Each structure stands twice: as structure tokens, then as C-alpha cells.
Amino acid sequence: MLALASQPLLSIGDTAMIGRLGVEPLAARAVGAAIIGGIYWIFAFLSFGTTTLVGYHHGAHDLRACGETFFHAMSVALLGGMGVACVGLLFATPLYELMGASSDVVTEGVPYFRIYIASAPFTFIFFASVGFFRGIQDTKTPMIIAFLISGIHLILDYGLIYGNFGFPRLGIRGAAVAAWVGQLVGAATCLGIFFFSGSMAAYRSASLRIAFTRLRPLFRIGSDLAIRTGALRGSLVFATSCAARMGANVLSAHEIAFQLMLLGSEVIDGLAVAGQALVAKYLGAAQKEKAIAMGKTLILCGAVAGLIFGVAFLGAQDAIASFFTNSTDVKLLLGAGVILLVALFQPLNGIVFVLDGLLIGARDTRFLMWAMLVGALGIFVPISWMSLHWGWGLTGIWIGVGALMSWRLVTLLYRFFSRSWLPVQE
């Protein structure tokens, strides 16, 4: 859990520092984060898919297959990251304009986006590496590396955004440079551990040749998760675009609320990651009943963790708003029920994230794909559109988030307790 906690805390710190530069830089960061997050979350299959496959092989005590799976995931990460970086550099301005950003926001955001997206190859290699370490039941290593990345990022943020520690004052562009350096260090550390650590020797005995038999299961899981995640992130990008068309203040308030949502989801997602790795291991070892019992325990833990976050958000509404922004208008928007909605969703989110991880670990990704397509495109996107055109405002958008999470809760609970996610044959 701690390994994941560093990422939302980093994002919150980044948002808070940029927020003190003014409404336009924060809005520029919101648009850039929505686009980058949409792309990166699609490629998160490199982490989830690798965890599932490596975990299954690890449960079956096939260390060679674990290493080969990681090698193929790294190859996909490198090529995919280079492609994303090139496209992002070329189409940064049209992407911001497509999101409905004002000219001032485009001017602030495009340089930030171009620098940030250039780190995509490093980020995707880190994704694949985290999946490998989780799959072999090593959560300590990715936790340490995640905190290393976050520490470097935050220190450089403070130095480069404001011109501290002898660094030049780069404003919002400084945040992008900090992210680029942090991701480079993270990828280099992961590769260094795999290729030079003695504890990885057994996994390095794998054949370092591209084989379709190793790519096929990764692509099968990856395609399902990419479509699933693309639908989710696409709907979130659409919601951000709707908020952008409501004005910079609304967009800034939306970004703050989204960061709170991420804080709760990513920390609770630590339970989902544990469930994913353990389910894959138990199924690889033909221990279905252990997988079911462990899943029930984690579902309860997810609900409790979500309740804790919800109570914390409700009790600190004013402090949260003041931490992120000095704008009175943005604070009023947050206080008009938005933070309340975010808090109320947290127990639902806790259960949903855990169930999501369990089903990914069981390779039940096709069900997750179709359920998300219906929820994101059939429920959340229409509500966001109506919020913009029917005057429901930011509150309407966040009611849409709640409707999406409710749909996911019902469908995932049914799937888990029906046991239809369990493989017929091991």
C-alpha cells in the first residue's frame, strides 16, 4: 500500500505547488494531467498484465517464464513509450485545444505537456518493472523505488517551480522537468536491479528473444485492460473537457476534487494490488478456495479503508480547499457539495478497487472491459454532457462519477460472488 501511496501524494504536492502560481497554471496542469493520465492509464496494462502473468508462473514455480514475461513486457514498454512521446510532442497544441482550453491555458500548458510526455518510455518501463516485482511477491522493491521517484520529483518541483536551491524559476515547466528526471531515475533503478542484482539471477536465465507465445497472453490481457482503461480515462477526459468549458475556476476545482479521488483510490488500490498478485499465485498453484477466502477478506478491508478516507475528507473540507488554492471562487465551488460527494463515494470505491484487482489477477479482463464500456460511455459520459448543457455544473459531473462507481460496485460484486471468474481448468 505504501508503494502506491507515494504516487497520489506526489500528485497532490505537485498540484498544490502549481496552484499557488495562479488559476491558469493550475488549469493548464489539469488539462495536461487529464491527457497524460488517459494515455498512461491505458498503458497500465504493462503493470497489471505483467503482475498477473508473472504471479501465475511464480505460483507454478516457473522462474524462467517469469523472466521471459518481464523481458517481453519491457520490450513493449520501450516501443510504446517512444511512440507515445513522439505523438505527444507533435500534437500537444491540438490536444489542448480539443479539450476546450482557453488561449492562456494553452500557452501555459503546451510546454509543460511536451516536456512531461517525453518521459513516457521511462514511465512505461517502470510500469512493467513494478508488475514483475509484484508478481514475484516482492512489494518492498517497488515501494522503495516509488518513494525515490517521488522524493526526487518533489524536491525538484520546489526548486524548479519557484527557483529555490539555486535552480532557475521555470514555473509550471519546472514541474514537468522534475517529472522527467524522476521517471528516468526510476526506470534506470528498476533495470539496474533486474540485470545486476544477485537475487534476480534465476529470472535472468530466461531467453532474451522475442517470442509470440510470450507476447500473446500479455496482449490478450493488455488489449482488454487497454480498452477498459481507455473507456474510463476517456470518460474522465470528457468530464474534464466539460469542466474546462465551464471556466478556469470550475476546471481548477474539478482538478482538486480529482486529486482527492486519486488519493483515496490509489492508497486503497494497494489492497487491490495485493489481491491481484495473490489471486494469480493461488490460481497458478491450483488453490481456488484460498483465492476466494482471501478475496472476501480484502473486500471488507477495502470498505473500511474507504470509510476512513470519507470521514477524513468530510472533517477537513476547509483545510483541504485552503491547501490547494488561494482563490475564493474555487473554494466556494468545492464547498458547494463537491468535496461532500467525493467523501461519500469512498466506501464504494474501496470495494470496487479491491474487486477490480481480484478479477484482473484471475485474468477475468474481458468481463471488466465490457462492464467498464457500459458504465463509462453509457452512464458517466452522458451525465457529464448534461451537466455542461443543462446547467448542472461541477456538482453534476461528480454525481456522474458516483453513478459510474455504483454501476461498477453492483457488477463486480455479482461477478465475484457468482464465482464465474474462476478458471474451469488450471
What does this structure look like?
Helices cover 85% and strands 0% of the residues. By secondary structure, it is mainly α. It has one domain. The model is unreliable at 1-6 (pLDDT under 50).
Structural class: mainly alpha
Integer count of domains = 1
The geometry reads as globular
Summarize model confidence as the mean pLDDT.
88
* Low-confidence region ranges: 1-6
Largest sheet: none
User: How many strand segments?
Assistant: 0
The helical percent reads over 70%
Question: What value does the Rg take, in angstroms?
Answer: 21 Å
Amount of beta strand: under 5%
**Euclidean distance between termini CA atoms:** 29 Å
SSE order and pairing:
Elements: H1 2-19, H2 23-42, H3 45-59, H4 63-90, H5 92-98, H6 103-117, H7 120-135, H8 140-162, H9 172-196, H10 201-204, H11 212-244, H12 248-284, H13 288-315, H14 317-324, H15 328-361, H16 365-389, H17 393-418
Helix pairs in contact: 1-8, 1-12, 2-6, 2-11, 2-12, 3-4, 3-7, 3-11, 3-12, 4-6, 4-7, 5-6, 6-9, 7-9, 8-9, 11-16, 12-13, 12-15, 13-15, 14-15, 15-17, 16-17
